[in-house]
Design a protein that fits this description.
The structure is a single chain. With 365 residues, the protein is an alpha/beta fold. It is globular. The protein binds nicotinamide-adenine-dinucleotide.
Length: 365
């Protein structure tokens, strides 16, 4: 049974959901390594930070000496690797940071894990897991097709972000094939839910609408994404670590294919119901929707076949898009202090490398 887990990127959107899930639903002890880039926010972990089963190290996963020291100190039974640069638009503006963290950082972590793992007694070696958390974007674009991404779909990434994640997936599999390290890879569709950084599509639209600002939709808004509620993802990740077969890949998705425009319209309609008192001059939230120039290389459709997770690990999402988006909008309405401190930059004061939050007014779509 797994008792000690090292999580990278635990101050991010999915990492913090995973840590909150593990503290509430298991007895494992967790060590979180995070560099605290602009995307890392310890305020997302406020509820669990005081738990004696939780510890935090601020560290960069590309720092080999530091990563090795932490792995040796923590002596984890599983490493769950979520740290990454994750915003596609930022990867178009500055791809090298994505290669550094996503490719080099993963290689550094794999090496620290390998050296630690190879020195373990045989039985502990057998039980050890290195779980790499990746994205469906590595598979590329399903434009004009009714197919779904399966675990056997070839890689064809389009953006520097997805290419760097594809590179990291290949490294992880190579560490298994070459050294026999027990690795697991998961490729998941778009997540949404509480504590999502405001430059991402769904929170960006909720907050802009609440402020009576334009809701910028790329191109014609017909890009299709498969949406998964972040707490369903956290549950899936833990299921894979505990019951997944080493060397296997698992696709995780929500069976919720929607166009970006449908997502934005759903948010507008929920706000009409939940916040009928609109900002001055706004006739309807939908009237704020504006179409803006599309992102270069923008993939048209992603869709996941998550049947292996269902068949082999008995995991299915608990939230439909309708239930999950209602919870999400309500969370942003009830947790204004969290996002106001992100928008003002206060969450990040005193840290190195603070970046502006509203990345050129765009949102990740
Ligand atoms: N968000 C999604 O929809 C989605 C979907 C599928 C897969 N993923 C993958 O899941 C993982 C987590 O995604 P997220 O949305 O929570 O990302 P995020 O950007 O919210 O969080 C990333 C975290 O990694 C940390 N980090 C970045 N560079 C680091 C470094 N060099 N060293 C240590 N920490 C560093 C950041 O501080 C941040 O806390 C990523 O690997 C991403 O590719 C995300």
């Amino acid at each position: 049974m797994i008792e000690r887990v090292l999580i990278t990127g635990g101050a991010g959107f999915i990492g913090s959901a995973l840590i909150r899930y593990l503290i509430s639903n298991t007895n494992v002890s967790i060590v979180n390594i995070d560099k605290l880039t602009y995307a890392g926010n310890l305020e997302s972990l406020g509820d669990v930070a005081s738990s004696e089963r939780y510890a935090f190290y601020q560290a960069d996963i590309t720092d080999a000496t530091e990563v090795q020291r932490i792995v040796e100190n923590v002596r984890p039974q599983a490493i769950m690797h979520l740290a990454a640069e994750s915003h596609v638009d930022r990867s178009i503006d500055g791809p090298l940071e994505f290669v550094r963290t996503n490719v080099m950082g993963t290689a550094v972590l794999l090496e620290a894990a390998r050296q630690y793992w190879q020195a373990l007694p045989k039985q502990e070696q057998h039980g050890f897991r290195f779980h790499h958390v990746s994205t469906d974007e590595v598979y590329g674009d399903l434009e004009g097709s009714t197919e779904l991404f399966t675990e056997a779909t070839s890689y064809s990434p389009s953006s520097p972000y997805s290419a760097s994640k594809a590179g990291s997936d290949h490294l992880v599999r190579a560490w298994q094939r070459t050294y026999g390290m027990p690795v697991l890879v998961t490729n998941c569709s778009n997540n949404y839910g509480p504590y999502h950084f405001p430059e991402k599509l769904i929170p960006h639209m909720i907050l802009n609408a609440l402020h009576g600002k334009a809701l910028p939709v790329y191109g014609n808004g017909m890009q299709i994404r498969d949406w998964l509620y972040v707490e369903d993802h956290a549950r899936a990740l833990w299921r894979v670590v505990c019951a997944g077969v080493p060397g296997e890949t698992y696709n995780i998705g929500g069976h919720n294919e929607l166009t970006n425009l449908e997502v934005v319209e759903t948010i507008c309609d929920l706000l009409e119901e939940l916040v009928p008192n609109k900002p001055a001059g706004v006739a309807s939230y939908r009237s704020l929707i504006t179409f803006v120039e599309d992102r270069p290389g923008h993939d048209r459709r992603y869709a996941i076949d998550a049947s292996k997770m269902e068949r082999e690990l008995a995991w299915v999402p608990q939230e439909s898009f309708q239930t999950g988006i209602r919870k999400t909008v309500s969370w942003y309405l009830d947790n204004q202090v969290w996002w106001q401190r992100v928008l003002s930059g206060a969450y990040h004061l005193g840290r190195l490398g603070a970046a502006s939050v509203n990345h050129q007014g765009r949102s990740d779509q």
